[in-house]
Amino acid sequence: MAIKTNRVKSTNDLELKDRLVAINRVTKVTKGGRTFTFAAIVVVGDEKGIVGWGLGKANEVTAAIAKGVEAAKKNLIKVPVHKGTIPHEQYAKFGGSRVILQPASAGTGVKAGGAMRAVLESVGITDVLAKSKGSSNPHNLVKATIAALGEMRSPMTVAQNRGISLDKVFNG
Q1: What does pTM read for this prediction?
Q2: Nearest to residue 155, comparing CAs of 104, 84, 105, 82?
């Protein structure tokens, strides 16, 4: 069975909000002294199931953030959000970061830290339990969280793939 990609084709009609996850100052020592550049990790989303991340590098913070937003708009994915939470538990890893996402009942809130929180709020998830294990590097945490969200399948997709009704997906 071929896995369908859930990439978003067009960004023209989306109202995307950007969130800054981390800024890293990089120093290059040269013969003439130190040169500072900045790297910014940015997450964009419409809070209705679409999210993307980008990395921007520049000599100024504002330029790095702008480049990160543009990069994030180029790799958006669609995430199934079911009643404010995720449809099922998901595990993913990227580099040394490992993330576990679990659905939560209404009113729980986003129980996640740092980089994971920015991604989950940008998607529009309001109730989720999330745990990060291993490395807390923001680059890898964002990528692992996006990978976990990208592997999510909606109940409708599961029912279609199995050739059964939606009721049987939930009731067995």
Answers
A1: 0.87
A2: 82
